[in-house]
Amino acid sequence: MSMSRLVFAACIISMAAIALAATPVTYIFGDSLTDVGNNNFLQYSLAKSNYPWYGIDYSGGQATGRFCNGRTIGDFISAKLGIPSPPPYLSVTQNVDTLLKGVNYASGGAGILNDTGLYFIQRLSFDDQIKNFKKTKEVITANIREVAANKHFNEATFFIGIGSNDYVNNFLQPFLPDGQQYTHEEFTELLISTLDQQLQSLYQLGARKIVFHGLGPLGCIPSQRVKSKSGQCLKRVNEWILQFNSNVQKLINRLNHRLPNAKFIFADTYPLVLDLINNPSTYGFKVSNTSCCNVDTSIGGLCLPNSKVCRNRHEFVFWDAFHPSDAANAVLAEKFFSLLFTSFKLVFAACIISMAAIALAATPVTYIFGDSLTDVGNNNFLQYSLAKSNYPWYGIDYSGGQATGRFCNGRTIGDFISAKLGIPSPPPYLSVTQNVDTLLKGVNYASGGAGILNDTGLYFIQRLSFDDQIKNFKKTKEVITANIREVAANKHFNEATFFIGIGSNDYVNNFLQPFLPDGQQYTHEEFTELLISTLDQQLQSLYQLGARKIVFHGLGPLGCIPSQRVKSKSGQCLKRVNEWILQFNSNVQKLINRLNHRLPNAKFIFADTYPLVLDLINNPSTYGFKVSNTSCCNVDTSIGGLCLPNSKVCRNRHEFVFWDAFHPSDAANAVLAEKFFSLLFTSFKSAAPTAAPTPSPTP
């Protein structure tokens, strides 16, 4: 998907595809700054923190294997994302349900180089962590199949924070060989060339979205300050770190250019940490030059059970000789989020902050339900349907100039929205019923003549009512589940977005028709109640099938479409019809609100497109149109109002709001798509990519 265009249309209100708050999936790699307990499982490791006083400020006051008195930065960030902190890999190696939600591979003492931290006896180097991730992929792939697994990892986010030990527990140690045999330039080159191969290995395993955290000012941590007679930061060490960070950033840029669809980010946290150390009082701290725990740096610098611990732990930036305190991690997490939000071209960070996803620009998957305003060819496959548009002059302005089954001279609003999202328009369901690869990318179930009620559009002989469309979606789910297994299928549908634009035909081709029974036996209040109660059950059916993110497009001012205007002696909009539509829209909005409160994790949106369409009709010149009260195609409303092959078509099609008696023109759909995007961007608290408002009805 095109990142810059989407950013998800301003994160499509911060998507994600939607995310409509899609649950972020994160895989974490690193050292003791992010280890949450992997080293607990390494029997002979000397790099452990599963004893007091570690964890004294963690929930329950127990040591967990975190090298901190409380939470790591990763814990705080996970909380911001609304997810639990990913568990240590060694605690969940074969649990596929857990592995799918994200895992932490970090290991205290780990480095980019395999010989870093050797004196800890056991630790998981970055190479070891990548090998463990490969095992994770194998377990997941065996359970949900290759297609779904690849999609899962392509859309997950990989956080990597590693390299500190390559300095502190390798190059800077006078008794270890690397500091003796390499100049710093040579050592940096070794680190970068090794990291290059490691990041490419992750890419080959499916990682497309990687955040690499640059190193902080290691010359200012307590274990290094003690080497200075004055207790100051070690300037030379900090200069080396800046050189390393600069080279990593260049590497990230090269990989983004070299690897297709790679979206790697270098997060420069150095200045954030340095500011906290240099100006502790600004952030509510008093001490930043030594640690809260009175550690012995001659035997490792960790906080041992017999160490003396300060009482005012919230006033110290450092917990031990290497690691920030819980309070400092809270501040750094906030600053890190601000860095992501304000600095990254990928805006992927803004999506993280708004929780649309880690969408992190995941490709949107959309399932579309509706009538002729969004039908892209389903009715072509209904042999006896009278609601078809697979003949001239339909499609005259579509690519190739051929009729496709779209009820327009060109593109539907859904086509324009899909283009904005950087994805192809989802194909008609009846053309791809068993093609799982296609079904996973999104499908269009819309059918010209369809309504909320099953008896709407009966005189079209064949059409797929909303209930029929839901049944077809159920078949889609069955095909996908059979191919990628239930866990992955449920996740897929929970994170997809469902666009629904239906109800126009329930008026135009049902209630408003004097020869049909519904308009005779029901008052409008009763008819609305019937529509809403039916729609309530239908939306709940979709929810039971996995839909969690639904955008329901309200109806447009149907009293102003050409097929209705001709019923007015003066050719004006039918006021009573528009009032009914406003009542219907109001009741749908109330229904959506009730469902959001009633159904766990439901994120349903009502998109009120009525005022957008009305403004286009009332003020056509504002948008570059000249005619909005009649159609470009000279239709005969007495026999349906569609544009037949023998109809006369205007030459200046771009000047007409309506193509036939019911449907907007290609040019009008382009305008409405823009307006609909603006509506979403400015109005919705939860966000989602979009498909098609419903200005008018169907055949």
From TrEMBL:
Q: Name one Pfam family in it.
A: Lipase_GDSL
Q: Name one GO biological process term.
A: lipid catabolic process
Molecular function per GO: hydrolase activity, acting on ester bonds
Which SUPFAM superfamilies is this protein grouped with?
SGNH hydrolase
Where in or outside the cell it occurs: the entry states: Secreted
Q: Which GO terms describe its cellular component?
A: extracellular region
UniProtKB keywords:
Hydrolase, Lipid degradation, Lipid metabolism, Secreted, Signal
| Keyword Lipid metabolism found | yes
Q: What is its main location?
A: secreted
Q: Gene3D superfamilies recorded for this chain?
A: SGNH hydrolase (3.40.50.1110)
* Signal peptide feature range: 1-21
Instruction: Tell me the InterPro entries matching this sequence.
Output: GDSL (IPR001087), GDSL_esterase/lipase (IPR051238), SGNH_hydro_sf (IPR036514), SGNH_plant_lipase-like (IPR035669)
Q: Which family does it belong to?
A: Belongs to the 'GDSL' lipolytic enzyme family.
Name of the featured protein: Zeta-carotene desaturase
Organism name? Vigna unguiculata
Species lineage: Eukaryota, Viridiplantae, Streptophyta, Embryophyta, Tracheophyta
